[in-house]
Amino acid sequence: MAMVNDLIIEDPGVHEYSLLSSEELNRRIAAAKQVLGKDLVILGHHYQRDDVIAFSDYRGDSLQLARIAAELKDAKYVVFCGVHFMAETADILTSDEQIVILPDMKAGCSMADMADDQEVEECWELITERYGDSIIPVTYVNSTAAIKAFVGKHGGLTVTSSNAEKIFAYALQAKQRILFLPDQHLGRNTGVKFGIPLNEMCVYNPKEMAIEFPHGEGDPRVILWKGHCSVHMKFEPRHVQEVRAKYPDIRVLVHPECMYETVQLADEHGSTDYIIKAVRKAPPGTKWAIGTEHNLVNRLAQEHPEQFIVSLNEMICPCLTMNRIDRPHLLWALENLVTGTPQNVIQVEPETARWAKLAIDRMLQIS
To answer: Quick one: which of 45, 276, 274 has its CA closest to 163?
Structure first.
């Protein structure tokens, strides 16, 4: 064990860090940040728990954090408080000399896991055989580096909930059809907002290796991958009806990862950034039922006591994988950086990173 200024350095494993008091965790995280200085940048996604995001240097949604990662030039270490695909994106967009850390490698994303590269290759073979060279692949940033690379290699690009309409406009100028990965709900809700009829959107089921037409068979302009966000799927149409019955003058604001039927019943829908801005600019006394991740809804309620803010589904729990990034893991990661022994380094294979970066860069140029 060694001491650097006020920081005790030891390597007992993350479990022993979990035994520390809240005050000790805060003190040592702050001390580690001071020691690392300008060599360290901590990025925090809006869905992250409050006691962790409090230590982030930058917070944002997927698009904002992608832009920030691309602009980081001086930081030696980028610690990403989010989930695995976000840390991969940061590694792709930072230089080879910079080191990206994910405090807990088990912080994944069930949506991203719903599309692997082999399944996407099988899908591509089937749909190009059926529809020819008329398809551009577009993947939500909530996808693995391998899927982003596939998209980049086939002339496509990434998308976020913040820029989805812009990306749809670009994609449909480039090709007749879009293959949208991996969240069918963001794809469907964006398509409808863009003016595409439901019967011109089909669903590719990777388990059955089959194209499905849940809205009636037509000539598809959007082929939706059968994936979803496990958190946003818990906001159902009945929750909109129930909250309006309980609070007659409430406004319902949901994320476009929610199912189509829920979005159609809501007063507004938009990205995480849209939700935050809508609340910030609303007058005092406004009442909101918000359908998105629980940590963000609670944070908005705390930051805007002049408004009435509840979750659209008050029985929902926070994103479990996002919440794996806690202060013990963050402290463990930072103190290992102080001792020069980085842990949980995210490294995307160079060829994968090259093609994935192309897909991300195309998005950033449009956005």
So the answer is: 274
CA separation for the pair 322, 338 (Å, rounded): 25
Cα distance between residue 149 and residue 358, in whole Å: 8
pLDDT per position as a tens digit, 57-94: 999 987 788 889 889 988 999 999 999 999 999 999 99
Instruction: Report the C-alpha gap between 96 and 116 in whole angstroms.
Output: 25
**How far is the C-alpha of 292 from the C-alpha of 319, rounded, in Å?**
10
Angle formed by the axes of helices 327-338 and 22-36, to 10°? 30
Whether residues 34 and 127 share a domain: the answer is no
Burial of 186: CB neighbours in 10 Å, binned 0-12, 13-18, 19+: buried
Residues 174 and 221 in one domain: yes
Contacts of residue 334, defined as CB under 8 A and 6 or more positions apart, other chains included, come to: 29, 32, 33, 36, 40, 79
* Contact partners, residue 270, CB within 8 Å, separation at least 6: 161, 253, 255, 256, 278
Q: What is the CATH number of the domain that holds 34?
A: 3.40.50.10800
Q: Is residue 42 part of a domain?
A: yes
pLDDT digits (tens, 9 = 90+) for 136-172: 999 999 999 999 999 999 999 999 999 999 999 999 9
Q: Whole-model pTM?
A: 0.91
Question: pLDDT band at residue 9, thresholds of 50, 70 and 90?
Answer: very low
